[in-house]
Amino acid sequence: MSLDSDTSSQGGDHRNFRQITRDRLLFEMLRSTKKNSKSTWKVLIMDKFTVKIMSYACKMADITEEGVSLVEDLYKRRQPLPSLDAIYFIQPTKENIVMFLSDMSGRSPLYKKAYVFFSSPVHKELVAQIKKDSSVLPRIGALSEMNLEYFAIDSQGFTTDHERALEELFSENAEGSHKYNACLNTMATRISTVFASMREFPRVHYRVAKTINASTMTTLRDLVPTKLAAGVWNCLAKYKTTIPEFPQTETCELLIVDRSIDQIAPIIHEWTYDAMCHDLLCLDGNKYVHEVPSKNGSATEKKEVLLEDHDPVWLELRHAHIADASERLHDKMTNFVSKNKAAQLHQTRNGGEVSTRDLQKMVQALPQYSDQIDKLSLHVEIAGKLNNIIREQCLRDVGQLEQDLVFGDAGTKELINFLRTQLGVSRENKLRLLMIYAALNPEKFESDKGAKLMQLAGLSADDMIAVNNMRCLCGPDTKKSSGGGFTLKFDVHKKQAHRKERTGEESAWALSRFYPVLEELIEKLSKGELPKDEYNCMNDPSPSFHGLPTSSSVRTSPAHSMRSRRTGGTWARPRGSDDGYSSDSVLKHASSDFKKLGQRIFVFVIGGATRSELRTAHKLSSKLKREVILGSSSLDDPPQFITKLKLMSAEELTLDDLQI
């Protein structure tokens, strides 16, 4: 396995996480086959998992450019192409080896030559099985371990595709289940391939099992981070002897936690553009479907678009507050119209304001600006939809109470009053409010108080399952004081606060007070200040390990006075305020800043990460001057997370049976 010298965080020119993943697939795998192949074009064959790995990191045009003329499914009947060479990118499973041998053995193989790349380490027995077939061996051009078995969902994020991790690791029936160990083993292998790709050897930190006292038994649920850390450590130890140029000393840090560190982040309404799109709109992954005027002008037609990094407007707005995003879109539209005479003429014809439909029609009238107007009209439409949903579902009132509960400005009385008076709030949003309340006050649900609140909210027994199962994530210490990361702040004028205000940062917009616990943990990790009673490390620290100039990792901004929490009828923005993160200036200089970064920080959340946590990875990369990469078993939006909580005690049900 060849590794470029600039992949680790100690190397030269910086490439982000997804770029390194993409380059390995395109150059180390696909391009490497050109050296010993006489075939100009090749067939790329993948299984159901590896095709997703490829699709998250590469475009079809990228693959074609590397000489691939056809992409095939390993398990579908394929046309023989004996004049072409084939590249197999597959998982090292018995079933896949059987299919590969079936393709290439005998007198009439499907392809001329096969270059085989496994996504993770292959067992010796499977290699022996391949070697047994004397007709196949001469037809193999390469047999290699890529050690790349994760989905690069973001420039700074990945998942291991364990959608049922909550159920398999934390449910009441997890203990003694074969799925428990299988899930942990696969997860450990896939996390380890991230470090193989990045050429990084981490210090492995993990949240320790929580116990109340010496007589309390530690359950398998409590040991999940410990067991996963051990699994990752074992894989990395093997890499040190099997992968050429793999680092022998620590180059970065890895923190492994589970969903118990923060049960509120997956449920609370997040007010940034990206999070709201995935929470409130019916997206299929990152795919959004909208209507545009047909080319003949007679009717509308549906068009699919991807909300991803290739869209510059999305890239700029994704982490902005919805009000900020709406303002910026309005400014962009006004600016475009002011500089374009044809657009001004269209505006005059329609009496002033330019609508989304007007913008879409301009695409036909001004073909030279089609891509620019296309993107602009798309996001104007999306922002408009989001703002309509916010109004229709009374989400600002819901969001205000959510954050007041978390920060100790509201309690049981305010919640009961809200449930009695706010009749227009949906069942789902009432459920989310009660889940937040239950996470903050688990003792209230040990009596009939919880049932009475559920009854007042008009929720079902099915919904109660989700509330109760949140307590499975708490471990034995349900009345915890710190929650493996919660910072408590008490005030004589407040009820109990479960998050402290961020004194070093003034939020520019209303409903921006909430932040994930992960933000605090990453900052502590960067400073070497993780609580020793809550977090252990698999390897002893090397001297002078923390790879940044101390000043940049420890430095904090001067404290600002907190703005008023109540904002009336508008999105309040202090004059001249800037959160220093979502501004255009940061976006413009992000790539150049990456070249100056210190050692990477990897964080893995077992049981599903949130978009607010992914945003935190981006935010802290700028703040700490260290690339922060977030990994998880899955990336969940609130409805998905609630469904998964219900599945924790619903063996007979499947994901398709439960709809939120």
UniProtKB/TrEMBL annotation:
Protein name: SNARE-interacting protein KEULE
Protein family (similarity comment): Belongs to the STXBP/unc-18/SEC1 family.
InterPro entries, sorted: Sec-1-like_dom1, Sec-1-like_dom3a, Sec1-like, Sec1-like_dom2, Sec1-like_sf
Pfam families given in the database record: Sec1
Annotated stretches, region: Disordered: 540-584
Biased segments, Polar residues type: 549-559
